[in-house]
Amino acid sequence: xLKVMGIILLIMAGVAGAVAFIVYEEATRFAATAAKIExxxxxxxxxxxxxxxxxxxxxxxxxVVADPFRFYYFLRYMVRFERAGEIQAGEYEFRDGMSxxxxxxxxxxxxxxxxxxxxxxxxxxxxxxxxxAGAGLADRNLFVKLCRDPVYIKxxxxxxxxxxxxxxxxxxxxxxxxxxxxxxxxLVRRFREVFAPYAAxxxxxxxxxxxxxxxxxxxxxxxxxxxxxxxxxxxxYNRMKIPMKLQTDPTVIYGIIRARGAxxxxxxxxxxxxxxxxxxxxxxxxxxxxxxxxxxxxxKAVAQPAESKMLFFVSHNDGTHEFCPNYACHLKAxxxxxxxxxxxxxxxxxxxxxxxxxxxxx
Length: 362
What we know:
By secondary structure, the chain is mainly alpha-helical. It has helices spanning 2-31, 52-61, 68-81, 100-109, 125-134, 140-148, 150-155, 180-195, 199-204, 209-222, 229-241, 249-260, 269-273, 296-303, 327-345; strands at 41-46, 90-95, 115-118, 171-174, 312-315, 321-324.
């Protein structure tokens, strides 16, 4: 009886071995086939909790694998014999010509598709929220709420009333479904990385981080010409030394947006004369915080401003400016580049520009 049982076990072991060998051979052959994806690439979302069979059917419908039945058993083979683990939910990009093994390994490793999103310099946090929401990466209202949440802001180590100025403009890669907290922390971390080399330069000029970012945000909004940023920064440093009010239109516009929720594009003399905490025509020195999120060049300009005696600048109406060291020079520049220009083109606002600045170049 024992001999019979032994023979049966040997036969069963042989059959199991033969089956395993056949499965291995079939898996090897199938793993060598290639995807034929119309258009070259496709992004497929693997829902959380999907079974291997569901995944195989989904990828077959998308043209990623040719045979859902064989791919299902190939996935089972990888899980059982190769200890591949579990397929991770999320979006994956697959390219034409990928083998079933490459397809499977991408999902087992969790190599999810990441969306490229570019945040330009000089945007407010609400505008950044719009970009992220438009890309399907964040809920706009929650993003804005966190940017204003004092408890959350403090937890990030930022000493400010909002995250304005600390969301660094750059190109990022994010996966859909990532927490907003992760996205915000990524932007703030990038700000710290970029600002770090300029901290000492700003401090040498009497500015802490928050003041430096505030001044950089004004520099960012005052010129569309990168080469002018060090000179713009120099003008504001020179004004603060006298002391003289900064008198810069973008701060007034920011105060209007904060008070009214929007700006209609028409900056009036009344607006320049109406006090608010951001109106640098009525307050001394810097406003309480940044008016946008400045880029690296604006931060650098604040840390390394040009050496000059300039106190005024007037727009050439093309993104560049005329700089002057005194009021007499400035009046001539205003006459040439603003009053005469607006007489020809029509006024940009309901009365002539103020004596120190011009309508924002952005």
